[in-house]
Q: What sequence folds into this?
């Protein structure tokens, strides 16, 4: 089931016909096992000493993917460049490029196969399949599955059937190396052929068996121009879970917010396929703006981004989801 979408031009038309007393009733019609060098142990590894070359951006033009929703969490389409303002490190920048077209996406599916997912795995598979069905012909996908270890189940492919087949013949068991799986997904994304990139995590959250830690993953995410979406089948009230496992949903929410993605908590397993479809539609209905950075120095510094909305009159309060910054390149 696709979510309702708001078309801004239609909304503004109706707002002109109705009096201010009924604006609130305005109708709206309308986001392998770890390959490469073996990561060192935590005691001997500094996050900055990543054995693989970090993902870096050519920031002659900074591109920002954005999703806009209304108070009912419905997508808002039809906005124009003049409806957005962008700031870098507190200074407003001119928007020199703007688009709302559906462009090809490179997507990594990060699939939890740990023992805690054993009673949820059937619905989780259905959700993944539903998400893949939203694909466009030029989209490409890979899959990372994880339990005790993260494994590259499928390299980049445009065959949805291949990913579905690989997903069906694995059993849920073992512990949860979620952070290692995210790292492996970001590593695989380096070979993506599309400029727009996203990771979709399907998990009950938490981590109890990774070699990478939270600080590592935050640094890797800052270096990656990749949105993070999460379908979270969280067991928040399970007191037998460790502190790391209970903190998992919070960590995933913070990582998703940093990239302009979102976390969709799942309270009813039967809702998983619909949520998967909603995420697929959202990814294909985003705005993209481009601006020139305020500082051309290749310093490797973290630069903060803030996007503000200037919505047309007659619309309710809107929410914009966009990445909160990027890592400047280095020489």
A:
């Amino acid at each position: 089931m696709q979510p309702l979408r708001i078309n801004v031009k239609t909304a503004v038309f109706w707002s002109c016909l109705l009096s201010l007393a009924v604006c609130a009733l305005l109708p709206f019609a309308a986001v392998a096992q770890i390959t490469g060098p073996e990561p060192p142990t935590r005691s001997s590894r500094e996050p900055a000493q990543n054995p693989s070359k970090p993902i870096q951006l050519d920031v002659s033009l900074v591109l920002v993917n954005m999703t806009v929703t209304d108070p009912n969490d419905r997508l808002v389409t039809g906005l124009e460049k003049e409806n957005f303002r962008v700031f870098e490190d507190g200074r407003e920048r001119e928007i020199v490029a703007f688009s709302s077209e559906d462009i090809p996406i490179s997507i990594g599916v990060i699939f939890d196969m740990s023992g805690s997912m054993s009673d949820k795995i059937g619905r989780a598979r259905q959700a993944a399949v539903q998400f893949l069905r939203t694909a466009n012909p030029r989209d490409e996908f890979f899959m990372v599955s994880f339990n005790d270890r993260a494994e590259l189940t499928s390299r980049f492919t445009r065959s949805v059937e291949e990913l579905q087949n690989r997903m069906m013949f694995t059993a849920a068991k073992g512990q949860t190396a979620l952070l290692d799986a995210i790292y492996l997904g970001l590593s695989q994304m380096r070979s993506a052929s599309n400029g727009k990139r996203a990771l979709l995590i399907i998990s009950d959250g938490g981590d109890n068996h990774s070699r990478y830690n939270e600080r590592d993953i935050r640094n890797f995410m800052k270096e990656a121009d990749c949105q993070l979406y999460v379908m979270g089948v969280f067991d928040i009230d399970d007191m037998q879970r460790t502190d790391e496992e209970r903190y998992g949903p919070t960590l995933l929410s913070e990582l998703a917010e940093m990239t302009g993605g979102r976390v969709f908590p799942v309270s009813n397993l039967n809702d998983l396929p619909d949520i998967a479809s909603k995420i697929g539609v959202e990814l294909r209905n985003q705005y993209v703006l481009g601006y020139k950075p305020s500082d051309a120095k290749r310093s490797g510094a973290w630069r903060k981004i803030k996007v503000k909305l200037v919505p047309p009159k007659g619309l309710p309060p809107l929410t914009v989801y966009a990445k909160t910054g990027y890592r400047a390149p280095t020489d």
Q: What stands out?
A: Residues 10-59 have pLDDT under 50 and may be disordered.
